[in-house]
TrEMBL record:
One GO molecular-function entry: phospholipase A2 activity
Name of this chain's protein: AB hydrolase-1 domain-containing protein
Taxonomic path: Eukaryota, Viridiplantae, Streptophyta, Embryophyta, Tracheophyta
GO BP terms, alphabetized: lipid homeostasis; phosphatidic acid biosynthetic process
Family membership noted in the UniProt record: Belongs to the peptidase S33 family. ABHD4/ABHD5 subfamily.
Domain of life: Eukaryota
Amino acid sequence: LGWGGSSRPDFTCKSTEETEAWFIDSFEEWRKAKNLDKFVLLGHSFGGYVASKYALKHPEHVQHLILVGPAGFSSESDMSEGFTQFKATWKGAVLNHLWESNFTPQKLVRSFGPWGPNLVRRYTSARFGVHATGDKLNEDESALLTDYIYHKLAAKASGELCLKYIFSFGAFARKPLLHSASEWKVPTSFIYGYQDWMNYKGAQEARKSMNVPCEIIRVPQVSLSLSLSRSVCFDCT
């Protein structure tokens, strides 16, 4: 909801609780429309946070939960010393203000108008130009990825506006899933790349309080995103 090719309804939430309900209730309506009773639910990154919150509220419908590099398990107390020091600088203060003001990267891309695609191209080249295996994207792949990401970012603002209510600056959850681990009622599999941009240690800590089967899988030779670095295997599973 509110991302990618999904519908982009107006986002009017003003709190973390409202924002979580916006996603969870929408997904529950979709489940009813599809007449699904019991299913395996997979969530990736922010989708992992939403999937976890859904499973906590509606465990009777989730047979197994698969979380791929999920966001939301770490809190500000897990902040590294380096990041704490950065937040204390003027640059950190400015970025924190922009975050709390809901100034998103998507807004920046839209504000660039016809120069937006070039801005996105520079980003994709820097971040996804080389796979974990060392293979570079060819020209066609790079162009397709840039076009895909640009049109996602430039579309109507919707789901992106939720981020400041779910996470504080630095992507630390305002309501960390770690704090709800003892309430878990669904068997869960965590999957991370060895150098995933999401920290697996939050899942390790959560597992200690879970009273359901839980496994943590770390996939070698994955630098940032499992779905990109191991896209063929990821899609097959």
